Amino acid sequence: MASKRDYYEILGVSRNASEDEIKKAFRRLARQYHPDVNKESGAEARFKEVSEAYEILSDPEKRQRYDRFGHAGVSGDGAGAGFDPFVFNFGDIFDQFFNASGPGQQRRGAAPRGSDIKYDLTISFEEAVFGCQKEIDIPRWESCGVCSGSGAQPGTSTQRCPVCQGTGEIRKVQQSIFGQFVNVMVCERCHGEGKVISTPCEKCRGQGRVRANRRVMVNIPAGVDDGVTVRVQGEGEAGAKGSSAGNLYVNLTVKPHPFFKRQGNDIIYEMNCSFAQLALGDEVDAPTIDGAKTSLKIPAGTQTGRSFRIKGQGAPVVHSQQRGDMHIIVKVITPNTLTPRQKELLREYAEIEKQQNERGNQNIFDKIKDAFQ
What we know:
The protein contains eight helices and 15 strands. By secondary structure, it is α+β, with helices and mostly antiparallel strands. The strands form six sheets. The chain has a four-stranded mixed β-sheet with strand order 10-11-15-14. A three-stranded mixed β-sheet has the order 1-9-8. The chain has a two-stranded antiparallel ribbon with strand order 2-7. The chain starts with 6 loop residues before the first helix and ends with a helix.
């Protein structure tokens, strides 16, 4: 019977290697020799050998016995000539292989990240264009200031769970006609954390979190628009037992402006003009979102609804030095009241226009008549 290889040699680590070094070595070798990845002859046997070594060296108690007595000290722990990889918990391999025990699940022994918070905020048109800072008050779970999120009363400490011995899980071996199977369950005593609190914090009662109202400063970047969501990292709910906090998501609603409208990063302004201005041409001042004025030349004979573009006077592109354009749309406005002189001039203009139209119509009738003849 061939002698078994040293587990440290199999993983390629020294005998005083840390747990993290052992995990990294296992992940590297598991990727290299996993049967689903490596189809070469001998890869499956090598993978079983690596899995067996990690099963022993990743457990502090088994590793201590192995260091003292060698393979004989762990022969009853699934190691030895009869080692079966199907008895080994492949959830451990999945943990190291994909950094999770399954899709959407939290790794054992790690407290879950805090929940995200959504907040609806209404800002003005100008604030959306130029950006702003807003202070908002949000109720949330925060890390306990007394125990610093540990859940233990100051002066005390957490202890290794006596039920699962710090692993966060309970393993039960079952024998069937198909062989030996391991049923892995989350430890009910420590809820998978691997440690318990002997003296809970008086303020948070062992939760590590307390409810509080917090004022948060939110930076709104220039150029945002209605419906945009701004993320504030780490300002969500505090995680349990000192784990990382969630994020704050601020959903923006932009108030309409009395004069300007948005189309992406372009700003639209409708300018009211008289008939004479469009017919004869004019030079007028138009307002901009910056608060300044821009000069606009209206050519003679401009039709109502025509758009003039002013480059670089629109809304900024978010996180950029670029800006959109401003579009000025001219529209004829019919006056509600007229002076006697204005009425006289308009009647005179209407009469001249009528005569021109009549001459034009006569020409048209003659052309139609000639066409039929």
